[in-house]
Amino acid sequence: MNTPGHKVIISCAITGATHVPTMSEHLPLTPAQIRDQAIDAAHAGAAIIHLHAREPADGRPTPSPEVFAQFVPAIAEATDAVINITTGGSTRMTLEDRLAYPLQAAPELCSLNMGSMNFSIHPVASRISSWRYPWEKDYVEGMEDMIFRNTFKDIKRILQDLGGKGTRFEFECYDLGHLYNLAHFVDQGLIKPPFFIQSVFGILGGMGADPENMITMRTTADRLFGRDNYQFSVLGAGRHQMRLVTMSAILGGNVRVGLEDSVYIAKGVKAESNAQQVAKVRRILADLSFEIATPAEARAMLALKGRDSVTL
């Protein structure tokens, strides 16, 4: 059940590296589009803004620090939201690629996938007959034979290199074993509470979007870490987004929305912006009598180093 007095952190993942431009004309691709949608999402109530970068010309995912620099400082200047930079990038990027901007920026928060895995949306390709850009078809179909790599050594390096700069992590857990991977690094002394656990449901290669899986993740995290030592959050992919994040709040957790996770706002209806998804989940939470965490409250809940300690 919900923890008394618990305030819900809303995270918003603005663009990601999984959806391609053909899937939605509203997916932000250019630095200006990412900047504007991120600022609007923060003003709509997102305390955390999760960011990837894309090539301005065609929307291809990129790890380029030069592209990140075209929108991250502007978001930080216009909002008080926590800036969360991906270390996941895409399956096409090396670890060096993925760490290029995070190590330069040393933000308050970075995402960290807690294991190697199959990660794919390749079945979607069969439902698309016309592609907006030439790279997209091979990118989506090619996921069938791609692995997202984060070995124990990779994770250790990220924890040491970024953790040494005071960055904390959104631990993305796509399967039950990822919680045990997290516990391994806790036992190694590389991670200290409070942990921010982002449970991911509905991605092919990870856990299915069954409510029972969420209960399993929540109770397993309780056994491994103790409920007072972590913040639980949920990401529901695609059509599963709103119902699963609502269940997370009811279980005492937090929520993540955004066009990285789903390009829809309702069945068959494309979301016109990230802010629209934030506004919808905020309305649902308010109707259920939940209070929404401000960026300052999110920083306190996650023990972040604070905006003053970051130069973006």
From TrEMBL:
The source's domain of life comes to: Bacteria
Keyword annotations from UniProtKB, A to Z: Metal-binding, Transferase, Zinc
GO MF terms, alphabetically ordered: 3-keto-5-aminohexanoate cleavage activity; metal ion binding
Q: Which InterPro entries match?
A: Aldolase_TIM, BKACE
Q: Name one Pfam family in it.
A: BKACE
Cofactors: Zn(2+)
Query: What name has this protein been given in UniProt?
Result: Uncharacterized conserved protein, DUF849 family
Q: Which organism is it from?
A: Chitinasiproducens palmae
